[in-house]
Design brief:
Largest sheet: 5 strands, antiparallel
Shape: rod-shaped
Radius of gyration: 34 Å
Distance between the termini: 91 Å
Order of helices and strands: EEEEEEHEEEEEHEHHHEHHHHEHHEEH
Number of helices: 12
Strand order of the largest sheet: 5-4-8-2-12
Number of strands: 16
Length: 361
C-alpha cells in the first residue's frame, strides 16, 4: 500500500505492510470510488466509518465495492446527497484496517493491591500482588473501532488498550478471591489454575464489551504486600473501632518495651500492661464507663474457673483466654522470652505449666 495525501480517490485499497503492534490502522484515503478493489488479507478486517460510527465491514478476500456490498454506506449517503452516487460514483468515507489475529502473550500485573480475607490471622486481611501473561484477539472489528477509535485517530496500538484489558483481568481475580476466600496465601497459591480459569470466565463479558476475546491467561504467582491498619482502613476494610483498637494495642506494646525512658520503671509498667491488656481494652472499647485502676494479675485458678477444661499444651489464642489477656500480648511475651514457649514453624505452643509459673512470678 502506498501513502497518498488525503483527498485522493482510491481505486485499489489494501494494507500490505505489517501492522506490528497496531490493532487498528487507517488508510490514507477519505474518498472511495464505486468499482474500486478492496483487498483484505488473512488476519485483517476492513471497517468503513462515516459520521461518527462504523458501517460496513469486510473480511479476508478481494471485494469489488458496489452499492450491493456497501448497504449501510449507500443508505446513509443517498439521504445526504444525490452527488455521491451520480456519474462520478465517488463517496467520502474513512476506512480502518483491523488486526483480527491473536496477539502475542502480554504481561499483566496488579497496580493496586488485592485484598484477601484471612480470618483469624493478623488483621483479618492480607494485601497481595499478582502477575502473569494473557493472550487476546479482536472478535468484533466494528465494536473496536467504535469503542477505541471513534473516527478521530489514525492508529490504535496495543498500549492504548492494554490498561483496560488488564483492569478487567484484575477485577475478575479480585472477585474470585472474594467469592472463594482461600483464607491464606499458601492455599491461594495452590489454586492458581482454578483462579486462571475463573478469571477467563469472569473477564469474558468485559472483553466482549470492548470487541475483544480473552484467549488465554496464566498466573505467574501471588506475592504478599505490606499490610497495615492504615492501608486497610484507606481501602475501607478496617472499621474505625478496630483501627483505634490497633493503635491502642501498639501504645501498650510500646509501653511494655519501656516507652522512651527504659530502665526499671518501663519494665514494671510493661509487666502490668501485659497482664492487664485485656481489662484495659475492655474498658476502652468494650463500653465500660471508666477505666479501672490497674490490678494485680488474676491467678490461674480464677481465670480458669468454671467448667472449661484447659489442655496441657495451648496455642496463643487459648493461652490468651486462659490468662485473660489479648492474643497480641501472649505473642509479645513469647517473643521476648518472658513466657516460655516452643515455636514450631510460625506458631507458638505453650504449656499450661509454663503459664501457671509465669502468672505466679
Amino acid at each position: 500500500m502506498g501513502f497518498f495525501t488525503r483527498g485522493n480517490v482510491a481505486d485499489k485499497i489494501e494494507m500490505t505492510q505489517d501492522m506490528g503492534c497496531n490493532i487498528v490502522q487507517r488508510v490514507p484515503y477519505d474518498q472511495i470510488r464505486l468499482g474500486s478493489q478492496l483487498i483484505v488479507y488473512q488476519g485483517q478486517a476492513a471497517v468503513f466509518f462515516r459520521d461518527g460510527k462504523s458501517l460496513d465491514t469486510f473480511g479476508p478476500g478481494r471485494h469489488t465495492l458496489t452499492t450491493a456490498n456497501l448497504p449501510l454506506i449507500t443508505g446513509l449517503m443517498q439521504k445526504v446527497t444525490h452527488y455521491v452516487f451520480g456519474a462520478d460514483t465517488i463517496f467520502p468515507a474513512v476506512i480502518y484496517f483491523v488486526a483480527v489475529r491473536e496477539f502475542p502473550q502480554e504481561g499483566w500485573g496488579t497496580r493496586q493491591p488485592i485484598a484477601m480475607q484471612t480470618p483469624g490471622i493478623g488483621l483479618g486481611w492480607l494485601l497481595i500482588g499478582a502477575h502473569g501473561t494473557f493472550g487476546f484477539e479482536v472478535s468484533d472489528p466494528k465494536l473496536v473501532v467504535d469503542t477505541f477509535v471513534g473516527g478521530d485517530k489514525d492508529t490504535l496500538d496495543l498500549n492504548a488498550v492494554k490498561t483496560r484489558l488488564v483492569n478487567a483481568i484484575v477485577q475478575a481475580g479480585t472477585d474470585w478471591l472474594a467469592e472463594v476466600n482461600p483464607g491464606n496465601l499458601m492455599k491461594a497459591q495452590a489454586m492458581l489454575d482454578e483462579m486462571a480459569t475463573a478469571i477467563k470466565i469472569k473477564a469474558k463479558p468485559q472483553f466482549e464489551a470492548m470487541g475483544m476475546n480473552l484467549k488465554n491467561i496464566t498466573i505467574g504467582g501471588l506475592s504478599p504486600l505490606e499490610t497495615s491498619a492504615d492501608k486497610l482502613r484507606a481501602m475501607g476494610l478496617l472499621d474505625a473501632g478496630m483501627y483505634e483498637r490497633m493503635y491502642a494495642m501498639d501504645a501498650i506494646r510500646d509501653a511494655s518495651k519501656g516507652g522512651g525512658g527504659g530502665g526499671t520503671a518501663g519494665m514494671g509498667f510493661g509487666m502490668g500492661a501485659g497482664m492487664g491488656a485485656g481489662q484495659m481494652m475492655a474498658g476502652v472499647f468494650g463500653g465500660a464507663q471508666q477505666p479501672q485502676p490497674q490490678q494485680a494479675a488474676p491467678t490461674p485458678t480464677a481465670v480458669a474457673s468454671g467448667s472449661k477444661q484447659w489442655p496441657d499444651i495451648m496455642g496463643v489464642t487459648e493461652a490468651a483466654e486462659y490468662m485473660g489477656v489479648e492474643v497480641e500480648d501472649v505473642v509479645s511475651l513469647c517473643d521476648s522470652g518472658q513466657l516460655k514457649a516452643k515455636k514450631i514453624g510460625s506458631k507458638y505452643r505453650i504449656s499450661k505449666t509454663a503459664i501457671d509459673e509465669f502468672m505466679k512470678s
